[in-house]
Every structure is written in C-alpha cells, then in structure tokens.
Write a structure and sequence with these properties.
single chain; DUF3013; 4-stranded mixed β-sheet; 3-stranded mixed β-sheet; Rossmann fold; 7 strands; 184 residues; globular; alpha/beta
Length: 184
C-alpha cells in the first residue's frame, strides 16, 4: 500500500508540535506537496522603516514571516525551485524515503527556530538591511547521515497522491448515467 506524502507530513508536524503555524497543501496543478510555514514576532512599537520584499512599509505592531518548502518530481512538476525556501526533488514513481522526510521536518523546525531569533535581532539592529532564512543544506545532509548511521532512517517509501479528475467531456460522452449524451 502506498503511503501518502502529504498525510505523512501532516502527522509528522503534529507530532513535532512546532512553535510555528503550518499547512500542508497537496497541489495537484503543480504536482507538488507544499508545506507553508508562518511565524510571528511581536514588536514593542510600530517599527519605522521596516519593509517587506515588495517594498511595502510595515504598519502593524507585529511582524509575520511566511515561507514554503516543496516536495516535487522534476519530471512531472514545472516549478521554480528558487521560489521556495527549499524545493526537494524526488522521483514520485520510486517514492521518497520516510527517513528523509522525518529529518527534513526536524531540520525545518531548527531553521525556523533560528530564523525567529534572527528576525528579532534584525528588527533591533538598525545596521542590518535585509533578513533571510538560512536553509543550511550541509547541516541537513549531516543529519541524514547521522540518522542512517544510528539506524533511525526509515526506508519505507512515501508518494505524492493526487486526485485524478476525469475529463468533463469524457464523463459526458462515456458516462452511462447520461446515455452518452450531454444533458442540460
């Protein structure tokens, strides 16, 4: 039986109980499983001069940060990996190791925890001009190797499972319920 990647990530994040808000999105149009993450820091006063990536000046007493990681099959999906905090490619016909997903979720939690602290420092330091999360691929690779060496790396496979919608025309022309004729 194939295990659904999106459902597994949802259960994994619930078990991890992270400080950030999250949503798992099974995006059948893009052929991706996206993990949307968000956290907020409260500001003592409205921070003058802080702008988002689009140049909009902040006018609230909090700062909300959002980003996305994506699991995708490069053959099936046409995404721009640079638009994500991290885009994780894998062959969906072969699946992705459960251990890789587990380690990636734990790494995401560490990245966002460090990012929240870094964002608070950014707000207080008038000399800094920009803020970015730092996804350290080297640390993730080391964590994967450690999990494998300690036999804590699940090798059962997870797959992206997208609902297949039958063509409306095919439904009308081949459907027995309408006798092969479109009814209006």
């Amino acid at each position: 039986m194939k295990q659904d990647l999106a459902a597994y990530i949802g259960h994994g994040l619930r078990d991890l109980n992270p400080f950030f808000q999250w949503k798992v999105q099974n995006n059948s149009n893009r052929q991706t499983v996206e993990v949307l993450v968000s956290f907020r820091i409260d500001l003592e006063d409205k921070a003058p001069g802080i702008q988002d990536q689009f140049g909009t000046t902040l006018n609230t007493n909090y700062l909300q940060f959002e980003d996305v990681i994506a699991f995708y099959d490069p053959i099936q999906s046409d995404i721009q990996p640079g638009n994500y905090l991290r885009a994780i490619p894998f062959d969906n016909t072969l699946g992705i190791d459960r251990g890789q997903v587990d380690v990636t979720l734990k790494h995401l939690n560490r990245v966002l925890s460090a990012g929240k602290t870094d964002l608070q420092d950014f707000v207080q330091d008038s000399q800094r001009h920009d803020f970015n999360l730092n996804w350290d691929q080297h640390n993730l690779d080391q964590a994967l190797e450690t999990a494998k060496s300690l036999d804590r790396f699940g090798q059962d496979k997870l797959f992206m499972d997208f609902e297949k919608h039958e063509s409306l025309i095919k439904t009308f022309t081949e459907g027995k319920q309408n006798d092969g004729v479109e009814r209006i």
